[in-house]
Each structure stands twice: as C-alpha cells, then as structure tokens.
Amino acid sequence: MRFHALRHAATLCIVAGFAASPAAAKVISVGATTSDANEKLQEALILAEPGDTVQLGAGVWKLTDGLSLDVANVTVRGAGAGEGGSILDFAGQQGAGEGLLVTSDDVFLTGFAVLNTKGDGIKSKGADRIVYHKLRVEWTAGPKETNGAYGIYPVESSDVLIDSVFVRGASDAGIYVGQSKNIVVRDSIATENVAGIEIENSYDADVHDNIATKNTGGILVFDLPSLPMQGGHNVRVFENIVNDNSTPNFAPKGNIVASVPTGTGVLVMANRNVEIFDNVFDNNGTANVMIVGYRYEHKDPKYQPLPRQIVVRGNQHGKAGYAPKFAGGDMIAAAMGGSIPPVLWDGAGDAVVLDPVGVLSLNLPDVKTPQSEAKPAPADLSKGALPAALPTIKLPESMEAKVR
C-alpha cells in the first residue's frame, strides 16, 4: 500500500502551503489580536473581489459570530492549522450556526483551524470547485452530544476536493459530503467523531489515503430517502487505514448516524456501485465492513433502499467482530467462538466479497423496494460476476494546482 500522498502526521502538525495569486489580485491581511477581529475578518470576506486572497494572521482569534463568504474565486489562507498558526476559536459563539459558511464557487480554504463551533465547523453549499486544504476542525473537549454536527461539510456541489484536513469531535460526521458529485477526499485524518468520513446521496467519489480511527464508524457510504438528490453511486473507498473505531455513539437521538454500531469500519447502506479495496482494517469491534439496506420507515415512493453491486476486494483484515454492537451480536459472537467474521451483511441487495475472510449474513427480512424496480436475486457474497471497475475521479486541473 502506498500512502505516499499523506502529507501530514497524526499529530495535528499541519503546515499551510502557499500558491501564487493572480497578478492583478490583492491580498487583504487581517490580524487576530485586535478587539474587533470578528468584524474586520467578516468585512474582509465581504470586500474581497474575485482573485483576492484573505490572509489570516497567526494567533488565536476569539470569535463570537459566524463568518460567511459569497464571493467567487477567493482564497482564505491562514498561517497554519497547528499551534502557532491561525486558530479561529468559536467557544464564545453566540448563535448556533456554522463557523464559516461558503456559498460561492472556486473558493480555496487553506492553512487555518476552526475550533468549538456551536454548529458545523466549515460548511459550503452550492459551492462548485471548492477546495478544503490543510485545515483543522476540532471540538477540543472531545466527543460530546452538544458538539456541532459536521466538521467539514460541503453539500449540493460539483467538484469537491478535501485534502489533508484533520477533524475531531463531530457529533454526526467529521468529514461529510452530501448531495454532490465528482468528489475526492484524501490524505486526511478523522478521529473521535460519530462518523469519521461520510459520503451521502452523492455520485462519483474517491475516498483514499485517509486515516479513520477512534470514531464510532470509520467511513460511511449512505443513500437516504426524501432528499432532492438520490441514487448515490460510483464510490471508491481505497488505500485507507480504518482502525480502532471504538468511540461510543454520541450522536443526538433521532439522527440516522445514532444507529451506527460502535466498532464499525466501513458501512455501506442503500448505495450502488461501491468498491472497497486495498484498505487496512484492524481492531473494529463490530465489523470491518458492513453492507446493509435502509430498514427505517419512509414515505418516498422513488427511494431504492437496497445496496447493489458492492465489491469488497484486496483489503487487509486485522482483528474484528469481537464486540458486535447490534441486537443479538454478543450471542452470535459467543456461538462462533468469541467473534463474528470481519464482513457483516444484513441479507439485502447484492455484493461480492473477494477478500479471503469470513462473511456473516444475518438473513434479515427483505427490504421493500419501489414497484418500478426489479429486486436483485439473493447475493452470493463469495463469487459472481464483478461489475465494471469504476474510473478514477478527475478534478479540474485548476483545483489540483492549488494544492501543489
């Protein structure tokens, strides 16, 4: 396994990179130490013009209000996301919103930290070609139900790059991409979140060279009903380290991730064309890989709740299944000598598991599907025709150039 692209260590030491600005652009520098830092920073984000860079000075910013950016082609650059860098601390935030909200295209966020927001850390909505790079989002008191739901949170976007970020403590997902397409999440660390990394109701995503550790569930690939964009598909999860996902689930009751069992490595629910390959799994108490249908009440007549064409191949499986956190799991483990196999399937949909490990099928009752769609035949998880390999996600060169 390569992991050569990991450009940081799991030590919070994340150093900001610098890319050239357009010749006609200007740099707007804002310092952290002034008493009106919140107002000055928001003013800079409002006055920035396309091509400009908002440069955050080093220091700890004590912020009481959320920030927003709605100007296209702007860079927000800090002095680094680790100690001594640009630390935006929202512990005194008065509202319940996000720390930073971006609603414009071609934005580059790099080299700063966002801490202790009341709501989400950094959110972008309808922001195409957005790049999250060398950022840290953290709730410094550790896992708590009252923490913000999402750390890095792009939604309803095309061309999303999340590169070299660190997220800790989110009460839903540390890195979440929803209702988007053409996505790359790489070289990042998600720890002590409910879900480390989540791809939801999205098309065409590569999730690779990440570390998902000490979450409730490491990496989730979901498709949910009653959302404008449905039919999540074409997701590759590869060359990640997914280990020790043992944090008790601290999501608020009623959230879908509140049902994720502690000790889950990768969980695929109701998605289509998902490849899970060349990952390193270890010490996930429920399962290294779970494949399930959506088994909750819903009123969406078009929703397809089955997992389909899921391929699990070429992974390294360490210890797993020794503390399964689902109904009856402990009894099943005891009957099987103390642990269940590393791959757990609820019996819905179809999948092919080529890893030379055991697979446990729970053979749960079937999942109701739309009348207009044929239900696949019961899966044989050990053999069968493989779907065509999914292509590598290609982002616009302008995005890749920003992180070099």
TrEMBL record:
Signal peptide coordinates: 1-25
UniProtKB keywords: Signal
Coiled-coil region list: none
Domain of life: Bacteria
Pfam families with a match to the protein in the record: Beta_helix (PF13229)
Right handed beta helix domain ranges (all copies): 147-293
Cited SMART domains: PbH1
InterPro entries listed in its UniProt record: Beta_helix, PbH1, Pectin_lyas_fold, Pectin_lyase_fold/virulence, SO_2930-like_dom
UniProt entry tagged with the keyword Methyltransferase: no
Protein's name in the database: Right handed beta helix domain-containing protein
